[in-house]
C-alpha cells in the first residue's frame, strides 16, 4: 500500500498560519463570493484519515459548524484523556512517537494521511515524515504569529509539482519531497 503523509495549509505572505492572537480570520481576507473551496475537496477526497494535534482539534471543535470531516481523525495528545462524547467514533486519541503513531494508524488500514496543525506539521518535518505539501498563500502580511516552519535538524529538499491561482489573488503551490 502506498503510504503518503500530506500537508494542506494556508499561510500569510510572511509565512504565518495564525496571527499574533492565534486567530485565523485573515484566511477570509480575500473576497470569495462563490465559496470556492480552493482545492480542498480534491485534496480531501484523496486522503484516508487526518492526523492533528490537540490544539487544532480543539479549534475545529470550537467552530460553529457540524464536524467537517467524514474520515477518521487521529488526535495527538498527551494531555487529553478522552475525546468528547460528541466526537466518539469520529476522532481517536493516539500517543507515542510519530513512528509508533503512524504504525498504529497504518495497522488500522489508513495510509494516505492529512497531517494538520502547526506543531504537528513541524514535528513531522523534523523527523522527515512529510511526503507532500500543498501551501496556499493568502496575500496578507501578519507581521507575527505562529510560523508554519521551524528549526530542522537537516535540510529537506522539495520540488514544485504544481501551481494554481484562485480568485486572482491566492496562490497555491504543491510540493513533493525529493528522496
Q: Supply the CATH superfamily name.
A: Dihydrofolate Reductase, subunit A
CATH class type: Alpha Beta
Strand order of the largest sheet: 5-4-3-6-1-7-10-9
Number of helices: 4
Q: Main β-sheet, in a few words?
A: 8 strands, mixed
Summarize the model shown.
The chain is built from 4 helices and 10 strands. By secondary structure, the protein is α/β, with parallel strands linked by helices.
Describe the overall structure.
- The structure is a single chain.
- The chain has a single domain (4-177), classed as Dihydrofolate Reductase, subunit A (3-Layer(aba) Sandwich).
- 18% of the residues lie in helices and 31% in strands.
- The chain has helices spanning 40-44, 54-62, 98-107, 118-126, and strands spanning 4-12, 16-18, 49-53, 73-76, 91-94, 112-116, 132-138, 146-147, 158-166, 170-177.
- The longest helix has 10 residues, at 98-107.
- The protein is globular.
- The two termini are 18 Å apart.
- The mean pLDDT is 94.
Walk me through the topology:
Layout: E1 4-12, E2 16-18, H1 40-44, E3 49-53, H2 54-62, E4 73-76, E5 91-94, H3 98-107, E6 112-116, H4 118-126, E7 132-138, E8 146-147, E9 158-166, E10 170-177
Parallel strand pairs: 1-6, 1-7, 3-4, 3-6, 4-5
Antiparallel strand pairs: 2-8, 7-10, 9-10
Any descriptors?
179 residues; alpha/beta; 8-stranded mixed β-sheet; two-stranded antiparallel ribbon; 4 helices; 10 strands; 18% helix; globular
Amino acid at each position: 500500500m502506498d503510504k503518503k503523509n500530506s500537508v494542506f495549509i494556508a499561510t500569510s505572505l510572511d509565512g504565518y498560519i495564525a496571527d499574533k492572537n492565534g486567530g485565523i480570520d485573515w484566511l477570509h481576507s480575500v473576497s470569495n463570493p462563490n465559496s470556492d473551496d480552493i482545492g480542498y475537496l480534491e485534496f480531501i477526497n484523496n486522503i484516508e484519515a487526518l492526523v492533528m494535534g490537540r490544539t487544532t482539534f480543539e479549534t475545529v471543535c470550537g467552530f460553529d459548524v457540524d464536524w467537517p470531516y467524514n474520515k477518521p481523525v487521529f488526535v495527538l495528545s498527551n494531555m487529553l484523556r478522552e475525546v468528547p462524547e460528541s466526537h466518539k467514533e469520529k476522532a481517536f486519541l493516539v500517543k507515542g512517537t510519530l513512528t509508533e503513531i503512524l504504525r498504529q494508524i497504518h495497522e488500522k488500514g489508513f495510509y494516505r494521511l492529512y497531517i494538520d496543525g502547526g506543531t504537528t506539521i513541524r514535528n513531522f518535518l523534523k523527523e522527515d515524515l512529510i511526503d507532500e505539501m500543498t501551501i496556499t498563500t493568502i496575500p496578507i502580511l501578519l507581521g507575527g504569529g505562529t510560523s508554519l516552519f521551524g528549526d530542522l535538524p537537516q535540510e529537506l529538499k522539495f520540488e514544485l509539482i504544481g501551481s494554481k491561482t484562485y480568485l486572482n489573488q491566492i496562490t497555491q503551490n504543491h510540493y513533493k519531497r525529493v528522496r
